[in-house]
Write a structure and sequence with these properties.
Radius of gyration: 19 Å
Number of strands: 0
Structural class: mainly alpha
Helix content: over 70%
Distance between the termini: 26 Å
Mean pLDDT: 79
Strand content: under 5%
Oligomer: single chain
Low-confidence stretches: none
Number of helices: 7
Length: about 170
């Protein structure tokens, strides 16, 4: 098995964890569905363990693909962050917009909180002491953006493979 096939396998495993997380968030909260075969697995692995595995695999795969380009200066911090935002922000905005629409439908105009809308739009929702995003499960996107910045900085400043491995630990 060559390196590309192994990476495709890890990418597929990451996709599996995404579906487990989605199923966990969708079905595990409904007591009527607790007797469905496999629900115990989804409850166990779809929550924090599923998220942790997804982040670990994502970080490794991203590290594998970007490491040499960051070190050689082929990709700048701005371009790196822009690519990450293009990938994540549309779904983040859509899910928070849909959650706001549901809140408006349920609670009327009282659901509108301009500070919360602004903090959510700027990826600051859920920062300590600030209102969280309208779609609560999207709290991780601002955290992920901070992790991306740290990843870029660590990769940029660790020129040797040994220092890079220590940084990843």
């Amino acid at each position: 098995m060559d390196k590309k096939e192994r990476l495709l396998g890890l990418t597929a495993l990451k996709g599996l964890f995404i579906w487990i997380i989605v199923l966990h968030n969708t079905f595990s909260l409904d007591p009527l569905l607790e007797h469905i075969p496999g629900m115990a697995f989804i409850r166990l692995f779809g929550g924090s363990l599923g998220n942790s595995m997804f982040f670990i695999l994502s970080g490794f795969l991203m590290s594998w693909g970007y490491r040499n380009r960051i070190r050689s200066g082929q990709i700048t911090f701005g371009v790196f962050l822009q690519r990450r935002l293009k990938k994540l922000y549309p779904m983040y905005a859509l899910s928070n917009g849909a959650s706001l629409a549901v809140s408006l439908w349920q609670y009327g105009v009282s659901a509108i909180n301009l500070k919360r809308i602004a903090f959510t739009a700027l990826l600051l929702g859920g920062v300590i002491g600030q209102p969280g995003p309208y779609n609560h499960p999207s709290w991780f996107v601002p955290c992920l953006m901070v992790c991306y910045a740290l990843f870029y900085a660590g990769t940029f400043w660790t020129k040797s493979d040994t220092a890079y491995r220590v940084f990843l630990l």
